[in-house]
Design a protein that fits this description.
- By secondary structure, the chain is α+β, with helices and mostly antiparallel strands.
- It has four domains: about 90 residues, conserved putative lor/sdh protein from methanococcus maripaludis s2 fold; about 80 residues, Elongation Factor Tu (Ef-tu), domain 3 (Beta Barrel), CATH 2.40.30.170; about 60 residues, RNA polymerase II/Efflux pump adaptor protein, barrel-sandwich hybrid domain (OB fold (Dihydrolipoamide Acetyltransferase, E2P)); about 80 residues, Orthogonal Bundle (Helix Hairpins).
- The protein is built from five helices and 23 strands.
- The radius of gyration is 40 Å and the shape is elongated.
Length: about 325
């Protein structure tokens, strides 16, 4: 019988598997919200009595839909007065133009004094200016009539009603709360611990009401929120959108792989992983590892190829440099 070398005799039996078979990508989760793109207090722009509400709390509206009707009798009277003043001014201007044209002809014939000629010219210029003022007054009166009918500035939902029929409004008086119907943005606050993982991650999802919505990162603000000391990131929906106001979770995965905590061993107060290399157990320290947690192995200092043989069974019995025999599971 042949002699067995001491190294082989002392070799420790282990099982191994390719790193690709146990590698994982860590998933991280933070709270996220779909804020309303628009959240407005719909207010009166004139002083008037509220005649009618066309919508109420919970109503869905489209852009241009009537919301509130104000009593417009006074404003319509002002519009009629402005239109009458404008008409009268046009008549006076037409008369002044005729008189000035006549003055021009008489001036050529030398049959009019310079003083009267200048008066005719000044009168026409004055009435032209007055006419422009009348036009502006008429336009303002029309605007105030239009403001009697308050319409939705965008698609959305009525979330609150602040006034009642018969109340006297003033400019700026809030009548309704209108929230936009949809928004393509998700906001998330990121602490410094997860900032690098988030900025270098992949497969972003917004999870709400048991549904997942794929996201893409639009921007990570480079300044800290003064209240929470977090970074604020904005992501947008790639396809379907969650309901405005949804409060859910933003999830993403690390781009690089990690090794599960169950394969990490402690040697000489250092955490690492054992691999099999030419019949020898080799301990690779994982400097960023935390006991009981998965550890990244794809970074600037450490990288395991997909086919690297990681010691699975028997890893607690070996030390760096031990001879090993790989058994078939």
């Amino acid at each position: 019988m042949g002699l067995v070398s001491p190294a082989v005799a002392d070799a420790i039996k282990v099982n191994t598997t390719a790193y690709k078979n146990i590698a994982i990508k860590l998933t991280h989760t933070l709270g996220g919200v779909v804020p309303a793109a628009q959240d407005s207090n719909i207010s009166a722009q004139i002083s008037a009595i509220i005649d009618e509400f066309h919508v109420d709390t919970g109503s869905e509206v489209k852009k241009g839909d009537p919301l509130v009707s104000l009593n417009c009798e006074e404003n319509r009277l002002r519009l009629k007065q402005a239109e009458a003043d404008l008409k009268a001014e046009r008549v006076q201007l037409a008369h002044a133009k005729t008189k000035f044209e006549q003055a021009k002809k008489l001036d050529k014939q030398g049959n009019i004094s310079k003083e009267i000629y200048n008066q005719r010219e000044a009168e026409e210029n004055r009435l032209r200016a007055t006419l422009e003022n009348r036009k502006a007054a008429r336009a303002i009166a029309q605007i105030n009539v239009d403001r009697c009918d308050i319409k939705a500035p965008y698609d959305g939902y009525i979330t609150d009603r602040h006034a009642s029929i018969g109340e006297l409004t003033q400019p700026g008086t809030p009548l309704l709360q209108l929230v936009s119907k949809s928004n393509n943005i998700v906001e998330v606050k990121i602490n410094n611990r997860l900032l690098n993982s988030f900025s270098e991650g992949e497969n972003y999802q917004f999870v709400f009401n048991n549904h997942s919505y794929p996201l893409q990162v639009d921007v990570i603000l480079p300044v800290l929120d003064t209240t929470t000391r977090n970074h604020i990131a904005r992501l947008s929906f790639i396809d379907k959108q969650a309901t405005t106001g949804s409060v859910g979770k933003v999830q993403w995965q690390d781009r690089n792989t990690s090794i599960p905590s169950s394969y990490i061993a402690l040697r000489d107060r250092k955490l690492g992983v054992f691999i099999a290399e030419d019949g020898i157990a080799k301990f690779i320290e994982l400097e960023d590892a935390t006991e009981g947690q998965p550890a990244k192995v794809d970074n600037d200092r450490i990288s395991l190829d997909d086919d690297t043989q990681v010691i699975t069974r028997g890893r607690f019995n070996v030390r760096d440099g031990d001879h090993i025999i790989i058994e078939t599971p």
